[in-house]
C-alpha cells in the first residue's frame, strides 16, 4: 500500500526558516518524481515544486527561497523553506507523481505551515 | 504561462442529477496532460482522471473526462451524496511546470 506522510510544519516568524519532510512507502521511491503542492486557508491548490531524475522545478512564487531535495536511501523528500512570508501560510501536501502522466496519484494528509508577521 | 479557468465557480445540484464541470486553458494543453481531482473538506485531493479521459484506479465509472486542446470537461453521470466536493483541473506545461484551476464547488441543492 502506498503511503505518503508529511511532517515538520508549525508556526514560524516572517523571515524565518522551516524544513518539511515527506516519508514515502509502498513503492520504489527512487523511480518516481515527488512533488509539493500547497493550499492557503480557504483557497485553491498551488503547485510548489517537483524533484525528478531530470532535476528540480519551482513555482516562480517560491524560486530562490524554497529548495526541494530527496534522500532515496531514506525514501524521503524534503522542502527547505527560507525567508518565509505570510503568503507562504498554507497546508503543504507531498504527492507522488503518476509516472508518464504528469499528474499526482498519491497524496499525504498535509502539514500546516503558519508564518506570522 | 498557461492559465486554467474552471466554470462554474459553484454548481448546485441534487443527488441523481448529472454534473458537467468545465476547464478551459489559455493555451493548448501539452499532449492532453490534463487531470481532475476531487477534494473534500479536511482531506487531501484525490486523483480522478488523468490524460484528460482515463479514470484513475478505483474511481467509479460515473466519473468521465473528455476534451482536448484548450477545452476539457468532467462529467458525473448520476450524483451520489459522496460526490459533493470541490473539483480541480490540473495541467502539465513548461511555465509553470504544473498549474491548477481555481476549482468548482459542487454542492447539494
Q: Would you kindly provide a brief summary of this structure?
A:
The complex is a heterodimer of chains A (117) and B (109). Chain A contains no helices and eleven strands.
Q: Would you mind describing this structure in some detail?
A:
The complex is a heterodimer of chains A (117) and B (109). Chain A has strands at 3-7, 10-13, 18-25, 34-39, 45-52, 55-58, 66-71, 76-81, 90-98, 103-107, 111-116. With 117 residues, chain A is mainly β. In chain A, the strands form 2 sheets. In chain A, strands 2, 4, 5, 6, 9, 10 and 11 form a 7-stranded mixed β-sheet that branches. In chain A, strands 1-3-8-7 form a 4-stranded antiparallel β-sheet, with no helix packed on it. The radius of gyration of chain A is 13 Å and the shape is globular. In chain A, 40% of the residues are buried. The mean pLDDT of chain A is 97. Chain B has strands at 4-7, 10-13, 19-25, 34-39, 46-50, 54-55, 63-68, 71-76, 86-92, 98-100, 104-108. Chain B contains no helices and 11 strands. Helices cover 0% and strands 50% of the residues of chain B. The termini of chain B are far apart.
Amino acid at each position: 500500500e502506498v503511503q505518503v506522510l508529511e511532517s515538520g510544519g508549525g508556526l514560524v516568524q516572517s523571515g524565518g526558516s522551516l524544513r518539511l519532510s515527506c516519508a514515502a512507502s509502498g513503492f520504489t521511491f527512487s523511480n518516481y518524481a515527488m512533488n509539493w503542492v500547497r493550499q492557503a486557508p480557504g483557497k485553491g491548490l498551488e503547485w510548489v515544486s517537483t524533484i525528478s531524475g531530470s532535476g528540480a522545478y519551482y513555482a516562480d512564487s517560491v524560486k530562490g527561497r524554497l529548495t526541494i531535495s530527496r534522500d532515496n536511501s531514506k525514501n524521503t523528500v524534503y522542502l527547505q523553506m527560507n525567508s518565509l512570508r505570510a503568503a507562504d501560510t498554507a497546508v503543504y501536501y507531498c504527492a507522488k507523481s503518476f509516472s508518464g502522466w504528469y499528474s499526482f496519484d498519491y497524496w499525504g494528509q498535509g502539514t500546516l505551515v503558519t508564518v506570522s508577521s | 504561462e498557461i492559465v486554467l479557468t474552471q466554470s462554474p465557480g459553484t454548481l448546485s445540484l441534487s443527488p441523481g442529477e448529472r454534473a458537467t464541470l468545465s476547464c478551459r486553458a489559455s493555451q493548448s494543453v501539452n499532449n492532453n496532460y490534463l487531470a481532475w481531482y476531487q477534494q473534500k473538506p479536511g482531506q487531501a485531493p484525490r486523483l480522478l482522471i488523468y490524460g484528460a479521459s482515463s479514470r484513475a484506479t478505483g474511481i467509479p465509472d460515473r466519473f468521465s473526462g473528455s476534451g482536448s486542446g484548450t477545452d476539457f470537461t468532467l462529467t458525473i453521470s448520476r450524483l451520489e451524496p459522496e460526490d459533493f466536493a470541490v473539483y480541480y483541473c490540473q495541467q502539465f506545461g513548461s511555465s509553470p511546470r504544473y498549474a491548477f484551476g481555481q476549482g468548482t464547488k459542487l454542492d447539494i441543492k
